Amino acid sequence: QTGRNLHRFKFPPRPSRLLQSRISSFHHITMTHIFSATTFVLILIVTLLAYCPLSRAQNPAITGSRILNNGTFFLSWSLDPESETITFSGKVRTSGCWLGLGIAPHRVWENSDKVTEKQGEGPFNVAMVNAAINVVQVNCKEQEQPAVLQNFYGKDIQYGDTKPNLVENTYSTLNVDKTYREDEFLHFELTRPLAKSIDNQDQDIVDGLNNLIFAFRDGSDSFGYHGPQSRGGIQINFWDPEWEPQITADTVFSKEPLNLLGGNLLLSYMYDKTRITFTLEAKTRGWIGMGMKKDNSPGMINAYLTVFEPGKRQMSQHVLTERNVGFPPAVAPNPEYSFDGYHFNPNSGRSVFRFSRPIAASNAKEDVPVNMKSTNYWLIAHASSDDQVEIANHGPNRILFPFDFDPTTPWYTILEWAHGMCMVGAWMIFAVGATFIGRFGRARLNGRGKGLRGCCFWFVTHHTWMMMVTAFLTILGFIFILIRQSTVLPFSQVFNVWDHPHTLMGFIIILTVVVQGILGAVAGILYDRTGRRGPSHVAVVHWYIGRVLLVCSFINIYLGMQLVNAHIASYVFYFFWTAFVGSVFVFQKPSVATPTERAINDEEERLL
């Protein structure tokens, strides 16, 4: 009876293949959007918490003063880290009615309008070349009229010119209530931002030596030529008012800070014939140290280290030998080393430590001289956390590097650039292109030809780009950096992959590339041309390792960019290209040949 009635039972209709495909696609896109939106929201929340804390500690204003121009100009300033502005005030003994105060890009000779641009070149005029100048002017004839502020920029100015170019600047302001003439003095107060307020027509006020210039003229009612006496210049660090370096015509400055530890530490210097001053800027509130070594022997062995400990507010010297376990106690203070200042810059988040020492070796027998004609080996370390205000374990925040005062670019720097170009070309260009062809080009590039073992065109292209180009550039880039490391490090340290995450991940990528090549060759041997059995297990493992390898290579390229402090344009290209590649992988469905396309391929192969 049951058998007779089976024909009466109606099963629910099966959904069509088109409907199933649409349901699957809708489910895929929906889950992808949900995942992407959730990830974006989490990143946004973390960013807001990191950069917009609920409460910010108030940073007190930094004040200082100087007496300039043989006692005729009394200058004081108040730098506000919170508002990122600086207020200049003071008075100048003059019978004139104006005062010019500016920041120049060149080092100015004190009490002169001459500047020095490069070592070995004579001084040239004038200090106003490309200088940003604020001119305060009072009305001496009508005392009730308020004072005015004009802003000038010394573009294309030549010696003998009376005025630089007048520019509009709404960011600098004048306190008219405190700007006036009284007796023999001209009083003033003006405020300007620390950063440039006008593109290419202003100068930054930096945490370092700023070239301050000034000018005025007795008996002059309006801004004009100052004459030979009433002008001058001086180098001032407004962030560290107590530091007054002795600068002469023989003083040489580093052109730009050395970028170390992936941008976490900056090193600059200035020196004359007998002494050198180092300035270290580290992203920590803890201790900072710098040492000299006689050679590039491993680690911190035989180093003479100078350390500043914020917890003790003092500088000390330490001698590191093979017998040390951790940091040794401080040795007797070196009287030939001088502590030139320490402060924390809340704008940059860096502690700034400055000290000077003789170029020749001091009387301490462990000291190492600074070599001006050949390679120096400098060792720098800082605290691993902000609460390490006294010397302790530095963790990964340590670097030993060679330095030569010769301004020519060392050839090992060119090797670093070649290494980076090889890796970017291999993984961001050819590896991405080969992966796109393998993932999205199977149905579109389905013709077969006399390529690699008669395989389809997409596989020939994918295989060539991966094996012949990506792998070749990766190995070539590895050889470049290997040669570079062997020139600046002893052989025992060349293969030390634990110094930086970029080095460790790069070494893993190199090993994985070799494994991927073997897996790809085996997957090609096991490949079923008919498509009936589906991909082999080796092919599936090859696919997933390839995806992980591609992601790791993008991450490692970013770590390398941080390590060498890449230009902002490099970061823009990196993030836009990464966003494009990620979007294609997330939102574009893989291309798979249909049974009809497979039949066409088989017929083409049979005819060939």
Report on this structure:
- The chain has 608 residues and is an alpha+beta fold.
- 31% of the residues lie in helices and 25% in strands.
- The chain has helices spanning 2-5, 17-51, 411-440, 457-488, 491-494, 501-525, 537-563, 568-587, 595-607; strands at 62-68, 73-80, 85-93, 98-104, 107-108, 114-116, 124-125, 132-137, 148-153, 165-167, 173-174, 180-182, 185-193, 210-216, 231-236, 252-253, 258-260, 265-271, 275-282, 288-293, 303-309, 314-320, 338-345, 350-358, 376-382, 398-403.
- A hairpin with a 4-residue loop joins strand 21 (303-309) and strand 22.
- Helix 3 runs antiparallel to helix 4 (457-488), helix 3 runs antiparallel to helix 7 and helix 6 (501-525) runs antiparallel to helix 7.
- The two termini are 60 Å apart.
What topology emerges from the helices and strands here?
Layout: H1 2-5, H2 17-51, E1 62-68, E2 73-80, E3 85-93, E4 98-104, E5 107-108, E6 114-116, E7 124-125, E8 132-137, E9 148-153, E10 165-167, E11 173-174, E12 180-182, E13 185-193, E14 210-216, E15 231-236, E16 252-253, E17 258-260, E18 265-271, E19 275-282, E20 288-293, E21 303-309, E22 314-320, E23 338-345, E24 350-358, E25 376-382, E26 398-403, H3 411-440, H4 457-488, H5 491-494, H6 501-525, H7 537-563, H8 568-587, H9 595-607
Antiparallel strand pairs: 1-2, 2-3, 3-13, 4-8, 4-14, 5-6, 6-7, 8-9, 9-10, 11-13, 12-13, 14-15, 16-18, 17-18, 18-19, 19-24, 20-21, 20-25, 21-22, 23-24, 25-26
Helix pairs in contact: 3-4, 3-7, 4-6, 6-7
